[in-house]
């Protein structure tokens, strides 16, 4: 995975739409979709989000006449792995064991979840 950066919540909203499409989109299409989702973001605001996503290595743009086509460089799953690893590194010193221990000690895991985890680990 390339060196990507963390997204803001608004940038994540934009990317969720782009990832759901499964391909490239135009800014005009994105603006229409955001309007359909009752987002009253101004076009310049959305263009700023898109520019930031390009800077962060999450999107790329190709020129088509006067319009840009935006194409994801990072999949939703890749970004989730990036966020998960960042969280583990910053909160649990990169230790999955410490994370699971915190969930277990906090009674956040049910017996069924523990059994599912045991099965999952044994199959890996």
Automatic annotation (TrEMBL):
<keyword id="KW-0805">Transcription regulation</keyword>
<dbReference type="GO" id="GO:0003677">
    <property type="term" value="F:DNA binding"/>
</dbReference>
<dbReference type="InterPro" id="IPR036388">
    <property type="entry name" value="WH-like_DNA-bd_sf"/>
</dbReference>
<dbReference type="InterPro" id="IPR005650">
    <property type="entry name" value="BlaI_family"/>
</dbReference>
<keyword id="KW-0238">DNA-binding</keyword>
<dbReference type="GO" id="GO:0045892">
    <property type="term" value="P:negative regulation of DNA-templated transcription"/>
</dbReference>
<protein>
    <submittedName>
        <fullName>BlaI/MecI/CopY family transcriptional regulator</fullName>
    </submittedName>
</protein>
<dbReference type="Pfam" id="PF03965">
    <property type="entry name" value="Penicillinase_R"/>
</dbReference>
<dbReference type="InterPro" id="IPR036390">
    <property type="entry name" value="WH_DNA-bd_sf"/>
</dbReference>
<keyword id="KW-0804">Transcription</keyword>
<comment type="similarity">
    <text>Belongs to the BlaI transcriptional regulatory family.</text>
</comment>
């Amino acid at each position: 995975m390339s060196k990507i950066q963390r997204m803001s919540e608004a940038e994540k909203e934009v990317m969720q739409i782009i990832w759901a499409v499964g391909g490239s989109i135009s800014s005009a299409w994105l603006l229409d979709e955001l309007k359909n989702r009752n987002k009253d973001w101004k076009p310049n605001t959305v263009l700023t989000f898109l520019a930031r996503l390009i800077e962060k290595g999450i999107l790329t743009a190709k020129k088509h006449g006067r319009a840009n086509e935006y194409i994801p460089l990072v999949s939703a799953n890749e970004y989730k792995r990036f966020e998960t690893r960042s969280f583990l590194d910053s909160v649990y010193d990169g230790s999955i064991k410490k994370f699971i221990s915190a969930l277990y000690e906090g009674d956040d895991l049910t017996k069924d979840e523990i059994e599912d985890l045991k099965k999952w680990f044994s199959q890996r």
